[in-house]
Design brief:
With 196 residues, the chain is an alpha/beta fold. It contains 9 helices and 8 strands. The strands form 2 sheets. The protein has a 6-stranded parallel beta sheet with strand order 5-4-1-6-7-8, with helices on one face. It has a two-stranded antiparallel sheet with strand order 2-3. The structure holds magnesium ion. The site of magnesium ion has 9 residues, from loops.
């Protein structure tokens, strides 16, 4: 994998980070199959589906409504990636910044017992692509104090938008196969080492 190996230990920004902000789908949750199943139920060809977009924009692109997608999405299917729950238990402060429909996301959080300090979903971004502004506002922190972790270039752009460090969720096989440049954590618990 390109970039500094996660197991090389702490890096320059480690001391400043107070909160880790995660993307949800494809980062904390192994949700590709659940997301796909809803699209397929609505007649969308598998090969047309991509990941990491605002749910409203992706629904429009694929010719369905957000409400239809939300009704078709099964919130009981997606499970955390191996190691994620242990990671969340080890982190003092964590937050979520996701393009997901808030009803789906909150149902999954309730099922999993997850209680991030701050969680922003599609409605917090007026159903446009997410950004870190509302997350930072609610945390009361500036961008130098957070680390963004995600699986898509949209997540990378979110971090770049405010100038905070970014780590790739390399435990997602789709992300690892893309061999992204930058810092890649091969396993969730590698983040603990990175943060020191
Ligand atoms: Mg994602």
């Amino acid at each position: 994998m390109d970039g500094p190996a996660a197991r090389s230990g702490r890096i320059g920004w480690s001391d400043r980070i107070e909160v880790v902000v995660f993307d949800l789908d494809g980062t904390l949750l192994d949700s590709d199959a659940a997301l796909l199943a809803a699209f397929v139920e609505l007649g969308v060809p598998l090969e047309d589906v991509t990941y990491g977009h605002a749910v409203a924009a992706e629904a429009e692109r694929l010719g369905i409504t957000v409400d239809a997608y939300e009704a078709a999405y099964d919130t009981t299917l997606a499970q955390p990636f191996p190691g994620v729950e242990e990671l969340l238990g080890r982190l003092g402060r964590w937050a979520v910044c996701s393009n997901k429909h808030p009803d789906s996301a909150r149902a999954e959080f309730a099922r999993l017992g997850w209680q991030p300090e701050v969680a922003c979903f599609a409605d917090d971004f007026d159903w446009e692509h997410k950004h870190l502004g509302p997350v930072l506002d609610q945390l009361g922190l500036d961008a130098t104090r957070v680390l963004m972790v995600g699986d898509t270039t949209g997540d990378e752009a979110v971090a770049a938008g405010v100038g905070c460090p970014f780590v790739w969720a390399g435990w997602n096989p789709r992300t690892a196969e893309a061999r992204p440049s930058g810092v890649v954590a091969e396993r969730p618990l590698d983040l603990v080492d990175l943060l020191g």
